[in-house]
Specification:
heterodimer, A: about 850 residues, mainly alpha, Alkaline Phosphatase, subunit A, 4 domains, 8-stranded mixed sheet, globular, B: about 290 residues, 2 strands, disordered N terminus
């Protein structure tokens, strides 16, 4: 009776998990009120005249500052423009998440994108992320009756449906050249046309080179030369063509890249793209013209401006109203384009009024009307909205003085006061701390805590029976709970699991070694049993060796991500070894599949055919996705001869084959059950079929890992583990392999290369599932393997497993929620802790429910039948 | 480190005179055939008792004193520290521990199932009577102990250090870089943990099987060795943190952890109530093998 109620409590704990996540997310992902509609000039006759008529907006994806400004840059023409004064250089600060779509939102609306945009960036076709109904400088141009043209990344087309009169979207895939020539081929034609006001170019090639081969790649400098030649082409057109005479040319990166060539996080490399305003007219300004220069700090060249500053600056220069939700500040260097001080001030005042409106929308209860200087204003210690209020009061005071005294006296003073106000407002609005709903956060935590409490009685009952492994599990969970509070450990979570696993291996070694020597014999004098196999004695050592190899397979995290590893450094240089390992892995899977029903020729043949198709798919896919692995003549020859079949069809064939295998195995099991009374379990066959699917969904370089995993499983099977030991091992293996396959807690490490296998039309559910499978291949494999390990044990242990899994899931969830709440004002909350929360969500919701629990229930059913 | 060095005074002082743990290695071994290879006690001489307390404190102050220079130039400093470490450890094992096959023969010969070859003539009397050895016997015993000390030093260098280097790599030390540091780290750890073990137990396969299975009864030597390993394992924790301190570099924290663990383990191994205990796995009911402390 007691166990029954404990089981009910565990069930309730599981029900509470999604509730806790839902409530917590409501409070955690801040909702920023958007002001609808388009901005208009309040007094249009007062608006300062526009400086430029047209704009060529050229985005080079992942154009890090040093690619343009440093000594070994390929942008030689651009650097000569900086020296001539025709180009004004900046380094922009691109806040996290540093992925294309949120960055484009920041550049066009001037607002800081919410973290949810990251998720929507992955679900790229989601139309809710469109900016069609938001105020952007594009919408402003459009509203003034002008035309816009776009060539390049099709993210623009998704963000701005129907915005462009002419457009050609390029999709991001894995080639370096074609994606850019598809943009360049339009330029010459468009530069002679006179009908557009904005020409947007977005080049993806440089980013692809970064992702594939890193910023130090040999492809990088030629690509920079190519981009530089386009800058030259556009600039010369502006100089020579009369209709382009008043054209502003903006060259910028949407984000940078880290030393490994990836982006999404918040390292200096990722957040420091270049930004240049280019026009012959700008030579009138007296500004810093040195180039190339050394960075002031790491990757910080010239002055740093916020990425959102592009929006008001463009709006000002083109004579457009500043988009409503912009948080940007007009870049002061460009203010000098207006001769009259009153115009400059008017521009800043316009910017200030617009920013004040957005602040009022965010803080509806705060009153800015009260012009009496609050006593705290002079202390210098005021913060947040109060500081903004003080700055605004100061601006008001100066303005009223000006109106009384006369126009010219305090121009500079008002300008600096306005800029101070703008800066304070921008800081307040960009800081994340302002708008959490603490009520929801605490409720979510309480629900998660309740879930932990509910799972506690059953967990305690189980763990107290298994003293040491139980203690270890609790210690690991406590340590994990402490770990998630340290931002660097969240970034380097793999280190935690690798470290814990070495400890667990030592425990298993000691236990196994003693067990083989007979635990009673230690008491009576340790009579050594020499009958023991030498391998058995060091099986844990073998496990540790294989673990050490896995650890080096994919370097992940932040600190050491760029260091050489097996997948990205060793294999491209040792392709023979690599392909032999891949073939071995597929041969191994075939042998194990065939072992399921060796007497049935049909089965063995089907296995052979399916395995060969799966291998061929991997080969062709590798040829298109990672050509650096295909220098070997044999493999490349094989791949080209196979490339006749479209990849989508090929992927579908593999999946169909696996499904046929599963159906056939069920049929054969029935037949064998009828023919002989011996119970036949199909679970190993299911596991093998699953392995084949996981291999299909993994990067080619990760395929040989499955060979290692099988050896680990064999060692573990020989160790005679108790059910709690199996659970602890499986849990740790699940986390460990997630990182060994290249995963991390950064959004940038999500691997989408296999998410579209066999998907013709974009289907968010299907792509989501495939993306999950390809990123969680290791954990899924171990969830299934732990069932193989336990296949001989009773169904009762399944309940034990569910209990402990629930306890682990709820307590990790609770600790991550607590960390996110306690550190909500932390500098890294958006870059480290929120991604961690998102990952925990998928660990708990998808992995815990869909894989671990469903697997267990499936086992319960199988036993029941 | 006063707190660490303080407590052992009682058990250490208590052992030789009373019939507790250390002398019980003879008496209880005959009464209870639990230990074929009983735990090792610190020698009963006054020097041994005092130095066994001072030794961990000396080692830890060496670590504290050289810490900043280890951070500056780890390879040179770790290499340069080895003579000091060797000196301290040699003084410790020769002054405080019975050498393999020698000291224990006098009182455990009755229970030894496998006869041992005494490596030297039994010059030393029983521990109880030889509280103040005369100079001549002292010198002679020193000379007699030098051979096992040198032998174990050789084995530590040739065998234990490579094995520990391998284990360090298995536990996550860099494979392709930092070879000198890994080797030096292993050398330090081997000198801390394996050198006393080899000196005390020689190359007795059964004892080493117990060590490999972590099944030794607790004493200062085994406690120190286990402490070294645990300390090194816990020492890896600060490395991934983003504090950007020079001492976070591999293997400084690991080695510091090893030293602290050694000192702690040595102390804990002699605490009354822990001494002589060992972790055991007993097959529980329903074939569940629980881990229990005896």
């Amino acid at each position: 009776m007691a166990t029954l109620s404990a089981n009910c409590l565990v069930l309730m704990a599981n029900v509470l998990i999604p509730v806790a996540i839902l409530v917590f997310s409501l409070g955690f992902f801040p909702f920023k009120p958007l002001i609808p509609g388009l901005a208009t000039f309040e007094e249009s006759r007062n608006a300062p005249p526009k400086v430029f008529d047209k704009v060529v907006f050229m985005v080079v994806d992942a154009l890090r500052s040093d690619f343009v400004y440093s000594n070994n840059s390929g942008f030689l023409f651009t650097q000569s423009l900086i020296r001539s004064g025709a180009a004004i250089p900046f380094t922009t600060y691109a806040g996290s998440p540093t992925v294309t779509m949120p960055r484009l939102k920041a550049i066009t609306t001037g607002s800081v994108p919410s973290f949810l945009d990251v998720i929507l960036n992955i679900a790229e076709s989601d139309t809710s992320s469109t900016l069609a109904y938001q105020d952007t400088w594009l919408a402003q141009i459009r509203a003034s009756g002008e035309q816009l043209i776009m060539y390049g990344d099709d993210t623009w087309l998704k963000l701005f449906p129907g915005m462009f009169s002419r457009a050609d979207g390029t999709t991001s895939f894995f080639d370096f050249t074609e994606v850019d020539t598809n943009v360049t081929r339009h330029i010459g034609r468009e530069l002679v046309q006179d009908d557009w006001s904005a020409l947007i170019l977005h080049y993806l090639g440089l980013d692809h080179i970064g992702h594939k081969t890193g910023p130090q790649s040999s492809h990088m400098i030629p690509k920079q030369h190519e981009m530089d030649s386009i800058v030259a082409q556009v600039y010369q057109a502006i100089e020579q063509k009369p209709h382009l005479q008043s054209t502003l040319f903006v060259l910028c990166g949407d984000h940078g890249m880290n030393d490994a060539g990836n982006h999404g996080g918040s390292s200096v490399g990722e957040t420091s793209p270049a930004l240049l305003f280019i026009s012959p007219k700008l030579q009138a300004l007296e500004l810093d013209r040195r180039s190339p220069v050394d960075a002031v700090r790491e990757l910080q060249y010239y002055r740093i401006v916020d990425q959102t500053d592009i929006t008001p600056t463009l709006a000002g220069l083109l004579g457009l109203p500043i988009p409503l939700n912009s948080l940007g500040i007009f870049i002061p260097e460009l203010l000098e384009m207006w001769q009259l001080g009153s115009q400059r001030m008017q521009l800043l005042l316009e910017n200030a009024r617009q920013l004040l409106k957005t602040i009022k929308a965010t803080y509806p209860t705060y009153s800015f009307e009260d012009t009496a200087v609050t006593p705290s204003c002079h202390s210098g210690r005021e913060s947040g909205v109060e500081k903004v209020h003080c700055a605004w009061v100061q601006v008001q005071t100066l303005l009223s003085i000006r109106d009384e005294v006369g126009k010219s006296s305090s121009q500079a003073e008002i300008e600096s006061a306005l800029l101070r106000f703008l800066k304070a407002s921008q800081d307040v609005m960009s800081s994340a701390a302002s708008n959490y709903d603490l009520k929801y956060l605490y409720t979510g935590i309480c629900i998660a805590g309740l879930a932990v409490l509910l799972s506690l009685p059953a967990t305690f009952g189980t763990l107290s029976r298994y003293q040491h492994p139980g203690l270890f599990l609790v210690a690991v969970i406590l340590a994990y709970g402490a770990m998630v509070f340290a931002s660097s450990y969240v970034e380097e979570e793999q280190q935690f699991w690798y470290w814990v696993f070495t400890g667990w291996t030592s425990y298993m070694h000691v236990k196994n070694f003693r067990f083989q020597h007979g635990s009673s014999s230690t008491a009576t004098g340790l009579v050594p049993r020499f009958s023991l196999s030498a391998l058995g004695r060091i099986s844990a050592v073998t496990l540790a060796v294989s673990h050490r190899v896995l650890r080096r397979w994919n370097q992940t995290g932040q600190k050491f991500a760029a260091e050489p590893d097996i997948a990205r450094a060793y294999f491209p240089n040792h392709q023979g070894t690599f392909w032999v390992l891949v073939v071995l892995t597929y041969a191994d899977i075939y042998l194990h599949l065939a072992e399921g029903f060796p007497s049935s020729t049909l089965w063995v043949l089907t296995c052979l055919v399916v395995t060969v198709i799966a291998f061929a798919f991997k080969l062709v896919f590798a040829a298109s996705e990672s050509p650096e692995l295909m220098n070997e003549s044999i493999t490349r020859h094989m791949a080209t001869s196979l490339s006749g079949i479209p990849l989508i069809l090929h992927a579908r064939l593999v999946v169909c084959g696996i499904v046929i295998l599963l159906i056939l195995s069920t049929l054969l099991t029935r037949v064998e059950r009828k023919s002989c009374k011996k119970p036949v379990s199909s679970s190993p066959v299911v596991h093998e079929a699953l392995t084949l699917f996981l291999m299909t969904q993994s990067r080619a370089t990760n395929v040989p890992i499955f060979l290692i995993l099988r050896q680990q499983l064999k060692i573990l099977a020989s160790m005679n583990l108790t059910s709690v030991e199996i659970l602890v091992t499986s849990l740790m293996m699940q986390y460990m392999t997630f990182f060994a396959f290249g995963g991390s807690n950064a959004i940038s490490s999500i691997d989408l290369s296999n998410a579209y296998n066999g998907v013709g039309n974009y289907n968010i559910l299907l792509v989501g599932i495939l993306a999950y499978v390809s990123n969680w291949a290791g954990p899924i494999w171990w969830a299934s393997a732990s069932k193989v390990l336990r296949s001989k044990t009773a169904a009762d242990e399944s309940r034990t497993h569910i209990t402990l899994l629930t306890f682990c899931a709820t307590s990790t969830l609770l600790s991550v929620m607590a960390a996110c709440t306690a550190l909500r004002t932390h500098l890294f909350i958006w870059t480290v802790f929120s991604p961690k929360y998102l990952y925990t969500m998928s660990w708990v919701i998808i992995h815990h429910f869909a894989v671990n629990l469903l697997g267990e229930i499936n086992l319960l059913f199988a036993v029941a039948i | 480190m006063a707190t660490l060095a303080g407590p052992p005074a009682q058990p250490a002082a208590a052992t030789p005179s009373s019939s507790s743990s250390s002398s019980s290695s003879s008496s209880s071994a005959s009464a209870n055939p639990k230990f074929a290879h009983p735990p090792v006690s610190i020698l009963p001489s006054r020097f041994a008792r005092i130095y066994a307390l001072a030794h961990p404190a000396l080692l830890l102050s060496l670590v504290a004193y050289r810490f900043s220079s280890v951070t500056n130039d780890p390879v040179a400093e770790l290499l340069g520290d080895i003579p000091f470490l060797v000196g301290l450890q040699v003084v410790f094992v020769m002054g405080c521990l019975p050498p393999a096959g020698g000291e224990r023969d006098s009182n455990s010969a009755i229970t030894e199932t496998t006869p041992r070859k005494p490596t030297g003539p039994k010059r030393r009397g029983h521990g109880h009577s030889a509280k103040v050895p005369s100079w001549s016997t002292g010198l002679a015993s020193l000379a007699w102990k030098l051979t096992p000390a040198l032998l174990s030093l050789t084995l530590t260098t040739l065998l234990a250090t490579p094995i520990l280097s391998f284990l360090l790599v298995l536990f996550g030390a860099p494979v392709t870089t930092h070879h000198a540091l890994t080797f030096l780290c292993a050398a330090h750890m081997a000198l801390l943990s394996c050198f006393p073990l080899i000196y005390v137990h020689g190359v007795d396969g059964n004892v080493w099987r117990e060590i490999w299975g972590a099944a030794r009864p607790t004493d200062a030597v085994w406690g120190g060795a286990l402490g070294t390993c645990f300390g090194a394992w816990f020492g890896a924790v600060p490395i991934p943190l983003d504090w950007d301190r020079p001492w976070q570099a591999y293997p400084i924290t690991i080695l510091t952890g090893a030293y602290i663990g050694y000192a702690f383990g040595m102390w804990l191994g002699r605490v009354k109530g822990v001494f002589g205990k060992r972790i055991n796995f007993a097959p529980g009911p329903e074939q569940v093998r629980d881990l229990k402390v005896e």
